[in-house]
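Lab notebook: predicted structure, single chain.

Context: the supervisor wants predicted structures on file for every construct in the current expression panel, including those that have not yet been purified. This is the next one on the list. No modifications to the sequence; it matches the entry in the shared construct table.
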Amino acid sequence: MLQLVNVGRKSLADYGSIAPRGLMDEIRQLAEPLQGTRVVHLSATAFGGGVAEINYTLVPLMADAGLDVEWRIIAGENEFFDVTKTIHNALQGNPQGLTPEQQEIFTRYNAQNAANFADDYDVVVVHDPQPVAMIDHFPDTAARWVWRGHIDFSTPNESVMQFLLPSIRRYDAAIFHLREYVPREPGLPECFIWPPAIDPLAPKNMALSPEDARYIVNQFGIDVDRPLLTQVSRFDPWKDPLGVIDCYRLVKHEVPDVQLALVGSMAHDDPEGWDFYNQTVTYAADDPDIHILSNLNNVGSVEVNAFQVHSEAVIQKSIKEGFGLTVSEALWKGCPTVAGNVGGIRTQIVDGETGWLVDSAEACADACLQILHDPAEGKRRALAGKEYVRGHFLTPRLLRDWLVLFNRLLGNDVGEHELVSVRPS
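Prediction complete. Output recorded below exactly as produced.
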């Protein structure tokens, strides 16, 4: 059997005072016909990245709503994850395609994982490209299969997309963050459009006092009496940490005592991450005011929370981004946020109202300087962003969307509970 992830327990009742009014009643209504429904989530890793963070909240909340739900991890060696990283980059626009050998590796590992999977669920949810081809080995399945894409598919490498499409067409439904991510291809299942969400009660997002944040950040060599800029993300070229360093250097010309923290996580399904981590360290050129930290430095969820709370500005200077949960995380904490004008980030930040959208290191630096020189305006936008996140990007809303879809797929009457969907031609 595939590895089972222990997600612990969570209670929907704990979210009642945080979620928008009426949402918890809607969730209870939608969950009623789904009692005992067997659901499994399949993904590539149990730590590092947004999918894992989402599932650690979503899965136990589904269980608390009465579903019989599991989360299992596929198996793979470095040769497989090297291929899936190439696929990930290609689907976000990298011109490098797959060799026949790489295609064989991908197909072989999906077959091996399928052989270790018991297809006795009502709904199978497959996250991202790594396990997408497992469905090919269950032609007579009685389950409803759903594929959830978490990245930016707006300008994919066509050869890689064509390699994956025969598998995607087998699914009963597909989910994308944005309408423009849906492939313009015939034969796809009905595609649903909804964003991911953050857990406001997780250690990464729970309320943390400025004094506690200051104490925690101080443990990592940050001078807590000087201004701090922070980016939280994987060490990945799409997150542009080198561009963040360029931004910091421009800011430092005007604010010499500014510091920068690049806080990331190293995931086992991202072997390329080490290479880019080393490139980032080299690019920092031993600047004592650039702090490059990861889970390997004991930076966990609470520490990330502390860095975001303590920072004068949080940056997410992505050049491609499926959604970018770190933006909602920062806004939820009331942190002034500067982010790349790309992908799902645009759905979280209304430029000039809830934060700053930027297209270059120069624009990023200018936004950071505005925040440093006018912290009251930065806080005003951040608090407006927090309320926007409350209404759109918290986990109860995400749970509601999944429950609507499960009911639809299983033939239950969902009444007026709607989802945004697209039927590709």
